[in-house]
């Protein structure tokens, strides 16, 4: 899938020749093949997610099909899907919706923000396109060369999915396919590969067994300490009740002695 960025000037500079940038993300190259006024007219009054034929852009784009993905004007206001207008509008947006990041907002809090409609107009400065169909000719310096990706997946399950491996296969040797070799600052050649996450090895299984064993030991220790505490608590309560009963007995004996009449000789 290719991403195309066309830079459009405002209506004041409509008759000038402008620069457009084309990006091919898969191969990692950038180019500026657009440069005439007629290149913009094919996209006017089109909406986001609408496909446009590249035949109107020139012979080099014959057979290409572009899909409009968005854009923004010279002030940086982006286009929003679902807003059927070519100009700007102010909408109440909440966090998580497109065109509004909403950092530092409370849950459910909405703010009124300026966005552009989903219809392409001449006020745009950047138009984002995706090439959904490649044409007959390659674009020089863009689609005729290949620059491989330097980074592959790190998660073990995704590595298995990439190379169609089973759970019994070792994924560590497949990471070497996208291991990169480079020269560090000291001039020494070193190789580097991503660390595999969620990789099940005998060491990880041993650590898991150790964690489970420690957890069981802590549970048994806590139960033993709780039983010992309950036993000690029962002993203390029994001693407290005995002391209380003794003090009450002494108090009753004193009251009984004081209530008896004195004998006169």
From TrEMBL:
Claim: Ribosomal protein is one of the keywords in the record: yes
Keyword Ribosomal protein carried by entry: yes
InterPro entries per the UniProt record, alphabetical: Ribosomal_eS6, Ribosomal_eS6-like, Ribosomal_eS6_CS
Signal peptide: none
MF terms (GO), sorted A to Z: structural constituent of ribosome
PROSITE patterns: RIBOSOMAL_S6E
GO biological process, one term: translation
Residue numbers spanned by region Disordered: 239-265
Source domain of life: Eukaryota
Similarity field: Belongs to the eukaryotic ribosomal protein eS6 family.
Entry coiled-coil feature ranges: 205-232
Biased composition range(s): Basic and acidic residues: 239-249
Keywords for the protein's UniProt record, in alphabetical order: Coiled coil, Ribonucleoprotein, Ribosomal protein
Pfam families assigned to the protein according to its UniProt record, in alphabetical order: Ribosomal_S6e
Protein name: 40S ribosomal protein S6
GO cellular component, one term: ribosome
């Amino acid at each position: 899938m290719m991403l195309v960025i066309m830079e459009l000037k405002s209506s004041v500079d409509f008759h000038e020749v402008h620069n457009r940038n084309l990006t091919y993300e898969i191969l990692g190259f950038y180019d500026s093949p657009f440069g005439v006024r007629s290149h913009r007219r094919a996209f006017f009054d089109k909406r986001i997610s609408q496909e446009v034929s590249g035949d109107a852009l020139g012979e080099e784009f014959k057979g290409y099909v572009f899909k409009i993905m968005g854009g923004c004007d010279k002030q940086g206001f982006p286009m929003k899907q679902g807003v059927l207008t070519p100009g700007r509008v102010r909408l109440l947006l909440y966090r998580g919706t497109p065109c509004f990041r909403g950092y530092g907002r409370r849950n459910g809090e909405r703010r009124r923000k300026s966005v552009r409609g989903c219809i392409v107009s001449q006020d745009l400065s950047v138009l984002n396109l995706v090439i959904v169909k490649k044409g007959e000719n390659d674009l020089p310096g863009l689609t005729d060369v290949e620059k491989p990706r330097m980074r592959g997946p790190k998660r073990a399950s995704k590595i298995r999915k990439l190379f169609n491996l089973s759970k019994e296969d070792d994924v560590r040797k497949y990471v070497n396919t996208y291991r990169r070799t480079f020269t560090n600052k000291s001039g020494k050649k070193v190789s580097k590969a991503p660390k595999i996450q969620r990789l099940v090895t005998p060491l990880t299984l041993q650590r898991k067994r150790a964690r489970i064993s420690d957890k069981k030991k802590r549970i048994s220790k806590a139960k033993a300490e709780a039983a010992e505490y309950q036993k000690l608590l029962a002993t203390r309560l029994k001693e407290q009740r005995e002391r209380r009963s003794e003090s009450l007995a002494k108090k009753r004996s004193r009251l009984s002695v004081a209530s008896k009449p004195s004998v006169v000789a």
